[in-house]
Amino acid sequence: MHNPEHSYKIIVMGGSAGSFSVVSGILSKLDPNFKIPIILSLHRLKHVRSGLSEGLSLNSKIKVVEPNDKEKIEPNRVYLAPSNYHMFIEIDGSIALSTEESHNHSRPSIDYTLMSAAYVYREKALGILLTGANKDGAKGLKSIADNRGYTIVQDPVTCDIDTMPKSALQLFCPDEILSPSEIVQFLNSLQP
Amino acid sequence: MQNSEGKMTYKEYLLVLKECSPYDFCEYSDNSIDRRIQKIMRDYHLTMDELIHKTRNDEAFVELVVEAITVNTTELFRDPPVWKFIRENVLPAFKNRPKINIWHAGCSTGQEVYSMMILLHEAGIFDKAEIYASDISKKALENAKKGAYKYSFNHNKYQENLNAAFADSVVPKITDFFEISKESDQLIIKPFLKTKTKFVRHDLVKQELPFYSKFDIIFCRNVLIYFNGGLQSRIVQCFHDNLFPGGVMVLGTHETLNGFFKTKFAKKGPVYSRTNTFHFKY
Fold first, then answer.
1. Is residue A41 scored above 90 in pLDDT?
2. Interface membership of A79 toward B (CB under 8 Å)
3. Domain coverage including residue B17
4. Which of A99, A76, A82 is nearest to A42 (CA)?
5. Cβ B31–A91 below 8 Å, yes or no?
6. β partners of residue B219
7. pLDDT at residue A137 in the model
8. Is residue A1 part of a domain?
9. Residue B75 falls within a domain, yes or no?
10. Boundary (domain end) residue, out of B69, B89, B104
11. Has A7 been annotated as catalytic?
12. Pfam families, alphabetically (chain A) (predicted)?
């Protein structure tokens, strides 16, 4: 279970269909001084390639950026995987991008981002999987759990489309199953 | 050459590859190379020992490894605003010049080579263009030469990209440049565009270039992201050396130059222009 003394170094959130409003809601209610960097790997609608970061920035209390390759991850910042790139976390705490083939028909692949976070941050990683219509992300979230990181799945009852959280729940038992408002509460409780 | 668990690491595998083939991936970034080698082992059901054995003894397999490591998927007019910028702000200057030399470094399966040729054609400067395209992967180059791409799923996206690249102008149709083959489910480049570009096999890690000419435009999109900082710098220096002053370098939309090169190139919109700054060697 969550140990309040346990400090997370990174938060990775993944989602697809319906996740824009959930993520936007979470970012609008976070403490503006929220320190832990948040990495977002969100599938985009095929024909809406751009505008996602602008959309999220509108209400976010924290700066949202689409990072460049090899950009250093800084506190108090949200990093959104750029359209049409996979996004990874490197061992030195920087972002790596790639245009290799799609994974689960997706680029960015949520699995890839989560797995790289699990590998680099181990028990210091917090993974959150939100609403979505694809099984991408389930394996990645499990890899966070396998590395003793903390895992949260959005409660399927509160999801627009519950394929993504349900795929994760079939694979393993996460630490928490929470509604979006409970996720916000949880995150804000991490602030010292 | 073994780690504490007695197993070879991916880095050590790259040394084996370097030793028994012409390929050197030692300066590729750890993250991408680890993942690619894991994928190869999964796809071919190999342990690390088996992978090493096959690499040492099977030349054809080495080529498959190279293809798997260097995969870089792209599309026609990927990132339309970049192409729009080139069309509006780079190409007009060449209307009154006798020649335009272009190099696509790491052209992969060639979609961007054809995207550029379409821009040149529409700008009326196609005939004075000299175009080279290079890649490390034999298979990718073969695909690039064929200029044949999957039709279903892609056709609409390609036309949309084209529309966006030619926004505020006369928009050509994909079918002006590609034949549609419903039987093979392919878009196939028309002959007048097919024979123009010289495709050459070339590994960017190796410094000597396969041509003498300098360039007005060098494309290298989403290739440097796979390299570590040192190799990136050497390659950008090579592009700098092989661009005419004022020549343009086009990188991927999320690739940037490190501090040292910021005086050697000026960022203009989404592209980099070689500056005329004088630099002492010592």
1. yes
2. no
3. 10-69
4. A82
5. yes
6. B104, B250
7. 97
8. no
9. no
10. B69
11. no
12. CheB_methylest
B280 domain residue, yes or no: no
Instruction: Choose the final residue of a domain: B69, B101, B118.
Output: B69
pLDDT per residue of chain B (282 residues) written in tens, 0 to 9? 444 444 578 888 999 999 999 999 999 988 888 889 999 999 999 999 999 999 999 999 999 999 999 988 899 999 999 999 999 999 999 999 999 999 999 999 999 999 999 999 999 999 999 999 999 999 999 999 999 999 988 888 899 999 999 998 999 999 999 999 999 999 999 999 999 999 999 999 987 888 888 999 999 999 999 999 899 999 999 999 999 999 999 999 999 998 788 889 999 999 999 997 665 555
Whether residues B63 and B196 share a domain: the answer is: no
Query: Which residues in chain B are closer than 8 Å to A90, comparing Cβ atoms?
Result: 29-31
| CATH number assigned to the domain comprising residue A170 | 3.40.50.180
The residue behind tokens 């209307």 is: B95
Active site (annotated) includes residue A143: no
Q: What is the ipTM of this complex?
A: 0.87
- For residue A68, the chain B residue with the least C-alpha distance is B254
Number of domains chain A contains? 1
Q: How many CA atoms lie within 13 A of A44 on its CB side?
A: 20
Q: How far is A65 from chain B (nearest CA, A)?
A: 11
Among partner residues B229, B254, B256, which is closest to A82 by beta-carbon distance?
A: B254
Is residue B124 located within the same domain as residue B256? yes
Tally of domains within chain B:
2
Catalytic residue among A53, A136, A143, A162: A136
Do B198 and B65 share a structural domain?
A: no
Same domain, B15 and B135: no
Residue A127 makes CB contacts below 8 A (sequence gap 6+) with: A11, A12, A13, A14, A114, A117, A118, A140, A141, A144, A145, A149, A150, A151, A152
Indicate whether A5 belongs to any domain: no
Residues within 8 A of A (CB atoms), B 175-214 only = none
Say which residue the tokens 């991936």 belong to: B25
- Chain A residues near residue B71 by CB distance under 8 angstroms: 100-101
Surface of A (142-181) touching B: CB under 8 A? none
CA B213 to CA B197: how far, in whole Å?
A: 15
CB of A70 less than 8 A from some CB of B? yes
pLDDT tops 60 at residue A42: yes
Upper half-sphere CA count for residue B25 (Cβ side, 13 Å): 26
Q: Is the pLDDT of residue A142 over 70?
A: yes
B110 and B235 share a domain? yes
B47 and B131 co-located in one domain: no
Task: Using an 8 Å CB-CB cutoff, list chain A residues near B157.
Answer: 46
